Amino acid sequence: MSKSSTPRGDAILARLALLALAVGGAVLLAFVVTVPMEIGQQFLFSAVVFLIALCLRNRENRLIPLVLMGLSLVMSTRYMYWRLTDTMGMSSFVDLTLGLGLVAAEVYSFVVLVLGYFQVAWPLHRKPMPLPEDQSLWPSVDVLIPTYNEPLSVVRTTVLAATVLDWPADKLNIYLLDDGRRDEFRAFCEEVGVQYITRTNNNHAKAGNINAALKKTSGEYVAIFDCDHMPTRSFLQMSMGWFLHDEKMAVVQTPHYFFSADPFERNLGNFGRVPNEGELFYGLLQDGNDQWNATFFCGSCAVIKRAPLEEVGGVAIETVTEDAHTAIRLHRAGYRSAYIPVPQAAGLATESLSAHVGQRIRWARGMAQILRVDNPMFGKGLSFVQRLCYTNAMLHFFYGLPRIIFLTAPLAFLFFGAHVIHASALMILAYALPHIVMANLTNLRVQGKHRHLLWNEVYETTLAWYILRPTLMAVINPKLGKFNVTAKGGLVQRSYFDAQIARPYLLLLLLNLAGVIAGIVRMVMAQTSGEVNTIWLNLGWTVYNMIMLGAVIATSSEQRQIRRAHRVPLNMRAVLHLPDGQALPCRTLNFSTGGMAIRLDQAQPVQPGTRVEVELAHRQRSQRLPAEVRHDRDDQGISIQFGELSLEQERWLVTSTFARADIWVKLWGRHDRDTFLRSTTDVLKASMRGFHRLGQFVFAGGRKDAPTPPRTGDSA
């Protein structure tokens, strides 16, 4: 190596080259964004950019998403520059006021778009780090399972799964943290062989529960699971290696996977076909955060190193999103975090839309509280990229007001003739359409397997009204609000229309319908072609809003959920033992804590009510479980219900099913990439169902409990 070339010198040159490239790119972007164009030139420029994107979007190269993001940012930045410099008219107070509201919502959306691109520009795809072969070098771990008011039927499976974790028994302690102080939970812990911790108060909810347990435990690491999140046997072996590899590692997070349908999936009938909103966060955003050392603790399915946690004062108690707030403090203290994008636990989703909304309100309020009391853009300890990632995560929950603005903006012209954008309809299309199309095309490539475009619109619209007030109030007074526990394991006994949840969207739907009528009247009375074009533009926008609101109303049509134990697909070898001694080889089709569906290798009728035993094998071991045949669906398909299981039999059922990581790996993140046509068609169908259900509700006299017929395929 020459004296003039050193590793430090090479690093400096590399940074200077990157800086020069960034400056050059910024100058080029500024030129492209600000150059003025006539309508025809703008359309031509947009068409060229769009054709380039179409040619590149399906190429299998990791650089392609970056190119698409760059093209999208060109069109979006050009649109925002045009909006801020050419369209802010002041012809009247109404125009100015409403116009400022709309442009503020657009600026918010643009900022979130830019930060989102940065966040997922280069996902890390971190692999687990192997542990030393010598198990004496493995550290001690305390497994903490906090609970408050959840039923024992939900909690016991999680506790049993924790007892079969693949970790040296002398280095593993399991604690059930019961803030409900229930004798049946204490008795269960004694029976199953885990430790029971309670306290005399419920101060600071889940965060206080964990902090109280930290004072009574001593493991070098703590693994935290919500009481409905069942860990797989491999959880610790998959997550602990990075701690031994990196002494500054403080948190290792894994995905939250839910094997039951959330209210959106159940009410819209797309469970298993369309990714739920959690898949975007755990399938892409956390992976993107990991590249920037900005992965944050999510409250469950994670391991935290005790010493750093105690150094920052334990789990944060100042906000109701204690998990993300704790991660910020750890990062400020100079510690690192990691995300392993392989599901190592599975849990239950919320059962009703109202419970789901309540949970998201808490998340939104908590993120707004952090933005107010511990803003990541200020204070010491965080790198610039960490500040951007955390800020984007918090800004995301402020979408309530922009969504409401977008749902009502065209009504300003249709009702009052107000021009919230001072430009011709053709000029608006020339700038806005490329911005929207390129952003959607880019997100189809970047997020297509994790989030479907228009379903995300439906999801955020449903929540917009309900997170609007909590987020704004949390910024004004972060002490308002309290921690609410999300109910799990409940039932929806009958289908019904939740008019209470749907009420604000019914009002918005009526306003948009009135807007369409007003637009038609204006069309009849229009004097110029320019005015006609403007009417058509606003009518199209209004009809789109009505389609979204129809789908939102469909989400408010609660579909019955009468299974206490949710079925999970599973294909594994088993043996069905009949009372006469016959052993029938079979394969499982699905399982739950209460039963199983199997298919015999060779057709043989088995009468319902027959007492049988099903033998399940796993890792060169097998055990028989008592059961009763419930249905003989055909010559080979049989549904069985488990009988009364001993504790060891129940533990074996968990070991051979819920605690197997391969089940969740096969089910998680396996959706086809979204297409605009598929997404549009599905949302249109959902919207039509929403309008149909609304009609039923109206004709039933507006009764909240008015029954709604189950969708095709629902259990009767």
From TrEMBL:
Its EC number is 2.4.1.12. Its cofactor is Mg(2+). Pathway: Glycan metabolism; bacterial cellulose biosynthesis. Residues 143-312 form the Glycosyltransferase 2-like domain. Keywords: c-di-GMP, Cell inner membrane, Cell membrane, Cellulose biosynthesis, Glycosyltransferase, Membrane, Transferase, Transmembrane, Transmembrane helix. InterPro entries: Cell_synth_A (IPR003919), Cellulose_synth (IPR005150), Glyco_trans_2-like (IPR001173), Glycosyltr_2/OpgH_subfam (IPR050321), Nucleotide-diphossugar_trans (IPR029044), PilZ_domain (IPR009875). GO terms for molecular function: cellulose synthase (UDP-forming) activity. It catalyses: [(1->4)-beta-D-glucosyl](n) + UDP-alpha-D-glucose = [(1->4)-beta-D-glucosyl](n+1) + UDP + H(+). The keyword Acetylation does not apply. Pfam families: Cellulose_synt, Glycos_transf_2, PilZ. Residues 561-658 form the PilZ domain. The keyword Transferase applies. SUPFAM superfamilies: Nucleotide-diphospho-sugar transferases, PilZ domain-like. It is a multi-pass membrane protein. The chain crosses the membrane at residues 12-33, 39-56, 63-81, 93-118, 397-415, 421-441, 504-523, 535-554. It is found in: Cell inner membrane. Catalytic subunit of cellulose synthase. It polymerizes uridine 5'-diphosphate glucose to cellulose. Belongs to the glycosyltransferase 2 family. This is Cellulose synthase catalytic subunit [UDP-forming]. It comes from Stenotrophomonas bentonitica. The gene is bcsA.
